[in-house]
Amino acid sequence: MAIDTVLLAVGPMDAVRAPELAETTLEIAAPLEATVVIGHAFTEEEYEDVHDDLGFDARVDDVDPNAVAAQRAPVPELADRFEEAGVEYEIKGALGEVSTKVVDMAIDIDADRMIVGGRRRSPAEKAVLGSVSQEIILQAPCPVTYFRDLDVMD
C-alpha cells in the first residue's frame, strides 16, 4: 500500500511540540513524496474563546474552519517547516466534536497514515475526562502514529 497522504492532526496543546511533530511527519512523508494535510479540529467553545485573538468577527455559524485552522497555533509553524523541506501540504480545519471531526477528515482526504499527539494521563483521568487521541486511534480508517509527549500535561 502506497502512502500518498499523511494527516497530521494537531490541537492547541501541540504548539509546544511542533518541531518534533514536524520531524516525525517529515520522516514519513518526505522520502515518499506524500502530501501532508495539517488538520486542526476545534469545538465551538474553542472558536468562541479565540476568534477575537485571530481577527475573526464572524459568528461560529459563519466561520470557515480552514481559515481558522490556518491561523491557529501550531499550524503556521508546521506549514513553514513543510514548505522549507519542500513537502507538499494542505491545511484543513473542522468545527465540532474533535475526535469525530479528525476521523471524518481522514476519511474525506483518504489518508494513508495519521499522526496524532497525546499527553500523559492516568487511567482515572482518561475515564473521567476521556481521551481525544485514544478515540481517534480507535476509529481511524488508517494506521496511526501516536506521538506521546510526557512533558505535555493538562
TrEMBL record:
Q: Which InterPro entries match?
A: Rossmann-like_a/b/a_fold, Universal_stress_UspA, UspA
Q: Which SUPFAM superfamilies match?
A: Adenine nucleotide alpha hydrolases-like
UspA domain residues are: 5-146
By its UniProt entry, which Gene3D superfamilies does this protein fall under? HUPs
Q: Which family does it belong to?
A: Belongs to the universal stress protein A family.
Q: What protein am I looking at?
A: UspA domain-containing protein
Phylogenetic lineage: Archaea, Methanobacteriati, Methanobacteriota, Stenosarchaea group, Halobacteria
